[in-house]
Amino acid sequence: MPSASAAPLDVLRRCARTDAGGAIGRDTGEGQYPWDLMPDSIMTNATVGKVDQAPQRPVLHLTFKGTESEYTVGPDVPVLANGPGDISLLKPGGAVFVIALKHEDGKLTSARLYAEKDGIKPPM
Predict the structure, then answer these.
(1) Which of 20, 48, 66, 109 fits as disulfide partner to 16, beta carbons 3.0 to 4.6 Å?
(2) d(Cα 68, Cα 64) in Å, to the nearest integer?
(3) Among candidate residues 72, 95, 110, the one where a domain is terminated
(4) pLDDT tens digits for 86-118?
(5) How far is CA 114 from the centre of its chain?
């Protein structure tokens, strides 16, 4: 979804460097967390408050846990939305991002995963 498509009450998740500012969302993952994408990176989960169209690029006003932050979003920044999927999205060689819980017996379980669709890979 282009950043200009973000609308109030959308929930966003964003990987960012800690010096880039931040904000977060209205689900159980609301907040900012250390992330292993690159050194000093964080994951931000936020609810969109409003979107201002600045001369160079959109500015998203994001809220989480009673805090508001602003993100300036460049044209090269992927902004994606979650949607329903099914097992047909899981293909050999396809990119996936899985959030899993490791049990004492070593088995992994997951309540959700993100899968590549139409050539768009999960950015996490």
Answers:
(1) 20
(2) 7
(3) 72
(4) 999 999 999 998 888 999 999 999 888 889 998
(5) 11
